[in-house]
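S1.2 Input.
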Amino acid sequence: MANAQRTVLRRASAQHGLISYDQAVGLGLPEDSLRRWLRAGRVERVAPRVYRVAGAPETWEQHLTAAVLTTGGVASHRAAARVWQLGDYDHIEVTIRGNGRRIKHGIIHRTQDLADGHVTKRARLPVTTPMRTLVDLGAVESERHVADALERALITRICSVVAVERALDDVARRGRAGAGVIRNVLNERALGQARPDGLLEARMARILREGAMPSPHFQFEVRVNGRLIARVDFAYPDIRLAIEVDGFEVHGTPSAFQKDLERQNRLTAAGWTVLRFTWLDVVRRPEWVVSQIAAVLRDRRCA
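S1.3 Output.
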């Protein structure tokens, strides 16, 4: 008995203080013991057949886990996007196959095409894979938000463009919610199959494309007499124009700043013009960024 109780409490600790009736009984805890815990206040019912250990703090993760345990479903859509760190959402969303129990707070999506290969676990929580999450996210978020989520997934290497395309192929059908959005994002992705170092590079590529700029080379290696002197974010090699975007996650330390200056000096000595833009520039005034690049392109090509 004591061993079963300890096992149940360990499982609850790994599930943000929650345990379901089926889990507790399956781990060897007698039904009457669970009822005694409930009467004594050691646990409290938070949903049908789902209990929280007394003293466990309420968190978003706990509410999501309760929804999963109640419905027997998997975390999905915006909830899964937060689990995979693809967006800062507060939504409680689960997907179930067919019918299931309702939840008071949160959204239930019902589907018949949630294959086993589209489900995994993260910190013991059943959740849609990053690829399936990106497909589903298009059903509830705008194309721009889905595009940013895709770039975050690529930056952290939890999936590839090819893997997302395969997930889309698995579920794509005419009229399926979300499929059209992620398909557009993949088709319009300015960086193609390339993986950016940061989200800012993807946004820069997007505004260059939307501004009808000539397509630059991405992550271009500048060499002098066969020796690599710099790799630049974007480049127009024919006129020796380099474009750098300074996101804090890549350029925000003193050592990184020092390396950036040394690299820029090498480029300048080799006859290159370097344009640098910050996150504020790219996100808040993209039209100004495009106009600056267009002016240099025009002047250098005229010269």
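S1.4 Remarks. The chain has three domains: 2-57, 62-188, 199-302.
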